[in-house]
Specification:
One of its GO terms (cellular component) is ribosome. The chain is built from five helices and no strands. The longest helix is centred in the first third of the chain and has 26 residues. Helix content is 62%, strand content 0%. The protein folds into two domains: 45 residues, no CATH class; 41 residues, no CATH class. It has 103 residues and is an all-alpha fold.
Length: 103
């Protein structure tokens, strides 16, 4: 009796595997019965780089050197103002880490 039940189970599992394979072929899925980690889920996603790039407006800084010069000048003036108030960056080797190390 038990031999017949085992055969039925084996045939049923073979049918299920065959149906799964056919379904995967028809719908373009990837059959992964052993369940190892697969990168297929990530690779089938649409690439989003172009969409993200379209979202942001054109940046004039990349083309016009005068804009870059003005930005550099503004940065330098702000740094000078901070130094006058004593809020500028410390000289090399005199930052927070160096002060902690010397205590």
């Amino acid at each position: 009796m038990s031999g017949g039940v085992g055969l039925k189970r084996m045939l049923a599992s073979a049918v299920v595997v065959g149906v799964s394979e056919a379904r995967a072929r028809i719908f373009g899925h990837v059959l992964n019965p052993a369940r190892p980690v697969s990168a297929h889920k990530i690779l089938r996603k649409k690439l989003i780089g172009d969409k993200v790039a379209e979202w942001y407006p054109y940046d004039i800084k990349n083309d016009d050197p005068r804009v870059m010069d003005r930005a550099e000048e503004e940065r330098r003036l702000k740094l000078e103002m901070l130094k006058r108030r004593g809020k500028g960056p410390p000289k090399k080797g005199q930052g927070r880490r160096a002060v902690k190390r010397n205590k």
